[in-house]
Amino acid sequence: MTDSSEWTGPVGTAWAREWRRTDRSFGALTDRLLDPAAIGGFARALDIGCGAGELVERLAAAHPRARVTGLDISAELLAVARARCAHLPNARFAECDAAQWQAASGEALDLLVSRHGVMFFADPPGAFAHLRAQCAPGATLRFSCFRARADNAWAGALDAALALPPSAAAPDAPGPFAFAERDRVAGILGAAGWTEVAFEPLDYAMIAGEGEGAVEEALSYFQRIGPAARALREMPADGRPAALDRLRGMIAAHHRASQVTMPAAAWIVTARAP
Ligand SMILES: C[S@@+](CC[C@H](N)C(=O)[O-])C[C@H]1O[C@@H](n2cnc3c(N)ncnc32)[C@H](O)[C@@H]1O
């Protein structure tokens, strides 16, 4: 489980240091998420859980007349995002929980996007109802989230390499796989008043390492980001060298043509404010 509070601590710190590699890991998903035909035109957009700000940068650059706000609870990630978007006068940022952020009067949103930033809410129906209340009628919501753990071979491979026991957390507890069940997500969005909820499955290759030192790069990436990082941190020190050897072996088995890639599976979810 990773709830919102962890993002203001070590998890957010690690993502703020590794943002180039986390962006790269999502690369194949990002274009599909920002498909112009799906998001349409807009005047005011919000990126929920914007992290290091890649979506804000891309939307603000492509739509110079629109205002794009990135929202996050991690000050460290927002510092990266602000620096990255400093050349874009139409990009804004706010350090705030998505369940509490308020659009200014007369500035209702017409687009909400999120790349894997909506699965950590303590009260998902409450958060999505609040976000809908910040929108103009007809606003578009489009976000990505992981599908089931079993469909995400990267997660199973890490668990196997590190001999991790099955997670004891409830399947719908806040965390990377909290939105894996399509019916649950449809129920949350419906309860929050969103309509026309649609799901597109997207299978993509998560890039963990690239170039000459791809295997070592992927090894260092997984030691900092995701479930392996936490498992290694919590492991007794004397077990770590053997665990790292097994991890390196698993990564080497996914090394092809100067890249380490692992299969990942996401939903792209679209909905509309009535
Ligand atoms: C998996 S990261 C994704 C970051 C970014 N969207 C990206 O694609 O690189 C999840 C993000 O959601 C943010 N987050 C988690 N809970 C949040 C909340 N309640 N309100 C706003 N942001 C939140 C985290 O701080 C983190 O930046």
Summarize the structure in words.
This protein is an alpha/beta fold. Helices cover 41% and strands 24% of the residues. It contains 13 helices and 8 strands. The radius of gyration is 19 Å and the shape is globular. The model has no long low-confidence stretch (mean pLDDT 95). Bound molecules: S-adenosylmethionine.
Key traits:
Rossmann fold, alpha/beta, 8-stranded mixed sheet, 8 strands, binds S-adenosylmethionine, 274 residues, single chain
Q: Return the string of H and E elements.
A: HHHHHEHEHEEHEHHEHHHEE
Number of H/I helices: 13
Give the radius of gyration. Answer: 19 Å
> Strand portion, in percent?
15-25%
For this structure, what is the CATH class of the domain at 4-148 and 171-206 and 265-272?
Alpha Beta
CATH superfamily of the domain at 4-148 and 171-206 and 265-272: Vaccinia Virus protein VP39
Category from helices, strands and their pairing: alpha/beta
Number of strands: 8
**Low-confidence runs:** none
Q: What profile does the largest beta sheet have?
A: 8 strands, mixed
Provide the CATH topology of the domain at 4-148 and 171-206 and 265-272.
Rossmann fold
Ligand list: S-adenosylmethionine
Based on the coordinates given, report the CATH architecture of the domain at 4-148 and 171-206 and 265-272: 3-Layer(aba) Sandwich
Instruction: Determine the fraction of residues in helical runs and give it as a percent range.
Output: 40-55%
Distance between the termini: 32 Å
Rounded mean pLDDT is: 95
